[in-house]
Amino acid sequence: MKSCIGIFGTSGMAREAGDVAWACGIEPFYVARDEAEVAAWPGAGEVVLEKDVGVYSRYPFVIGIGDNEIRRKVALRFEGQLLFTNLIHPSATFGYGQRKVIDEAQGVIVAAGVRFTSNIGVGNFVLFNQNATVAHDCLVDHFAHVAPGANISGNVHLKEGVWVGAGAVINQGDEKHRLTIGMNSVIGSGAVVTEDCEPNGIYAGVPAKRIK
């Protein structure tokens, strides 16, 4: 059987996930929500409709959708029906024992150039985009998204559904208290976070302040 992987989505994030698959020697195919998405598909590769995805259940899948809430809904919709795997670019690097920790999760996508050090907990369906860094003793909960070039310092806790924008910096916590980004909060691109962030907020600036 040919080595293939299904990728939910037809946007840029899905195509980036496809690039990771190709780098791993795996042929991607894409899952569109409806005929309109199929017609608008700008990439190469086979596109199938979500309603027909059961035909392809012998293959593993990831969810190449950047929106955390949509990714969550897709994961829940197909829970127990499809095998969700991890997709990790061969250029990503890992501290001692860290790759094994990530391999125990499911649905994680790690793009080119991502760097993990050690003792990092990673939940399911997390996206780590190009050249992001995650330092020691962090926790990254389910359905978080770390955008390109973001830097997560040591002893940080990204709670479920957090979005960290491109080039953002999350400063270091300590052993007694991880600097915590509350559930479903958004950290704007280029922001520098120096203290805890409340749930469901939008933070921007240097240092980052809640703007919504």
What's the gist of this structure?
The chain is of the alpha/beta class and 212 residues long.
Can you walk through the features of this model?
This protein is α/β, with parallel strands linked by helices and about 210 residues long. It folds into two domains: about 5-85, Rossmann fold (3-Layer(aba) Sandwich); about 90-205, 3 Solenoid (UDP N-Acetylglucosamine Acyltransferase, domain 1), CATH 2.160.10.10. The chain has four helices and 23 strands. The strands form four sheets. Strands 6-8-11-14-17-20-22-23 form an eight-stranded mixed sheet, with helices on one face. Strands 7-9-12-15-18-21 form a six-stranded parallel sheet, with no helix packed on it. Strand 2, helix 2 (about 35-40) and strand 3 form a beta-alpha-beta unit. The radius of gyration is 17 Å and the shape is globular. The model has no long low-confidence stretch (mean pLDDT about 95).
